[in-house]
Amino acid sequence: QVQLVESGGGLVQAGGSLRLSCAASGRTFSNYEMAWFRQAPGKEREFVAALRSAGGTTYYADSVKGRFTISRDNAKNTVYLQMSSLKPEDTAVYYCAADLIFAKVRAGTRVDYWGQGTQVTVSS
């Protein structure tokens, strides 16, 4: 079992920054492919960013490319999402996801582990 706990959300003005954290406990964190998703009210959950366990290749949704950065610290069992130049349309609940299979965590389908989510609200 892996437990994921997100933190770092909050209220920020447009143009501001936030750093989300996802702390993992349980099995070997470094083996897991990690991703961030978000879900805005009335909308479906959407992919934000992903990070391969080996090699560190990153992937981003077009809507956040150049503004968000995903990273991980295996010594702390934590994955981060640094968000800059935030826009009101970034308002959502942000979730981290973990799976041993990258295709699953990249698609957000049949993912083994999800966090409980953290709210990000960007005011205009």
Q: Care to give the gist of this entry?
A:
By secondary structure, the chain is mainly beta. The chain has one helix at 102-107; strands at 2-7, 10-13, 18-26, 33-39, 46-51, 58-60, 68-73, 78-83, 92-99, 113-114, 118-123. It is built from one helix and eleven strands, in the order βββββββββαββ.
**End-to-end distance, in Å?**
40 Å
- How can the largest sheet be summarized? 7 strands, mixed
Class inferred from helices and paired strands: mainly beta
3D shape? globular
Low-pLDDT ranges: none
**Number of helices, where a helix is a run of at least 4 consecutive DSSP H or I residues:** 1
Q: In sequence order, what are the helices and strands, one letter per element?
A: EEEEEEEEEHEE
Percent helix: under 10%
Spatial extent as radius of gyration: 13 Å
Strand segment tally: 11
The fraction of residues in strands falls at: over 45%
Global mean pLDDT: 95
General description of the model:
With 124 residues, this protein is mostly beta strands. It is built from one helix and eleven strands. The protein has one helix at 102-107, and strands spanning 2-7, 10-13, 18-26, 33-39, 46-51, 58-60, 68-73, 78-83, 92-99, 113-114, 118-123. β4 and β5 form a beta hairpin. The protein is globular and about 40 Å long. It starts with a strand and ends with a strand. The mean pLDDT is 95.
